[in-house]
Amino acid sequence: MGPETRTSSSRWVNLRHDAFASVVVFLVALPLCMGIAVASGAPPAAGIITGIIGGLIVGALAGSPLQVSGPAAGLTVIVYEIIQEHGMEKLAIVVLLAGIIQMKWAWLQLGQWFRAVSPAVVHGMLAGIGVLIFASQFHIMIDDTPRGSGLANLLTLPSAFWKGLVADDATPLNHHLAGRIGLLTIVTIMLWNLYAPRMLKAIPSVLIGVVLATAAAMSLDLDIAHVKVRDNLLTIVQLPSLHSLQFLMDPAIIGEALALALIASVETLLSATAVDQLHTGPRTRYNKELFAQGAGNVLCGLLGALPVTGVIVRSAANVEAGARSRAATLLHGGWLLLFVFFLPAILRMIPTAALGAVLVFTGYKLMNVGVVKELKRYGRSEVLIYGATLCTIVATNLLTGVLIGIGLAMAKLLYTTQNLETHFEHDPENGKLTLNLMGIGTFVSLPRLATALEGVPPLADLQIQFTSLRHIDHACLNLLESWQKLHEATGGQVHLDWDKLRGISYHVRKGPRNATWWQKWLE
Predict the structure, then answer these.
(1) Residue 476 domain boundaries
(2) What is the C-alpha to C-alpha distance for residues 431 and 91, in angstroms, rounded to an integer?
(3) Which residues of 250-279 are buried (b: 16+ CB within 10 A; e: fewer)?
(4) Residue-wise pLDDT tens digits, 327-356
(5) How many domains does the chain contain in total?
(6) What's the pLDDT band for 512 if we cut at 50, 70, 90?
(7) Cβ neighbours of residue 48 under 8 Å, at least 6 residues apart?
(8) Given 410, 442, 468, which residue is the final one in a domain?
């Protein structure tokens, strides 16, 4: 068999694997796209359009070939807030601007930097999103209306639970019937995950749950809410008008776009990192992936759809189903496009409660309380960062919570890595005093170093030891030098090997290397 024949055969095998994987991902993505749209307060078709763009456009440009993109549960909170505050028209502008920002960040080669987020912050963010999704979608699952805030949704969960449990003739809505359909969906998903035969494991549990719930609702002719999808998907597409484009310069819209771009980029690139751990194929090119996500969001904004993001659930399903290349992602986008154009009537059979139940289950999994035990291994401070991020997101909003978490992580970094320890030793035989410096000496450590030096008696014979000092910066060197001059001027003595001390400063360690023109100019 010649090289060309072997190559052709290999491509055919890969395409066969990709085709099967694309069907699996399509079956996972279809209910999630609609459910996330409903959770975001948008038409279900808006989520499907985002799924199509994530498959066909982002998939073609992606720097992570096996990652699947589409509407993400992690963005439902911020998208819901934008829609409630500004409406769908301004959401489109926010998504468009967020895409432009992502493309700009990719051009500036900032892709790798979005991975530099503390795991405690990431887990806290996901848990906070999970709590908000669970609380809001529980209301959807019983055909009720979510409240105005995350806290309100949480506080009204007991009453919502009671509505879904007991029939109430005082209300025209059959909350209890919708609740039973939602419960059936969740139980089916859980049982399928636990007990599905190995031969049928490839069929997504989410799809089985929604199909069974739909069949039950139809056979019993239940009077509950169903998904509303138009026959022509293009009717929901609304290109930005000249009037709406003026919002591009609105400070509030720019702030929302920055928040959306930041959170979407973090979620996408962390998801890409996780996908890399699931397979042995090509590694992620982060700036290329960031650019692809930006291009996808520009198109989503132009078409009035939800923002697109790399998502780990669909990506993991893609890898587990045997995907070999980006063809699987592209094909799944094609299946979504064909389905909504030719079979919209099937979508209208799906109870809204079933989609709400899918998101309730998703929110529960995002909470992942077990991660607290893992974080505790690295110190209580990690648990504190996790808890602060989670609680702030639930109490305020997603961006504030993430910023609080990052701020606490940076504070911990300063405390643990920029600390300087000082210790005195006195030799009564010769009267010499030794000051031991340990750790890292930077401008943050100046107060501690100054306090130690101020405690040296005026006429003391001081020996400064720094064998355990890992680094010292210019600020600490200046303080030591000026203090030595003052101490010796008043009759004291200082023994310090300045050459060795300067040798452990970053500036001197970098000295032997060839400096760039701008480094020489700065010097």
Answers:
(1) 420-513
(2) 74
(3) beebbebbebbbbbbbbbbbbbbbebbeeb
(4) 999 999 999 998 888 888 888 899 999 999
(5) 2
(6) very low
(7) 30, 33, 34, 37, 233, 336, 340
(8) 410
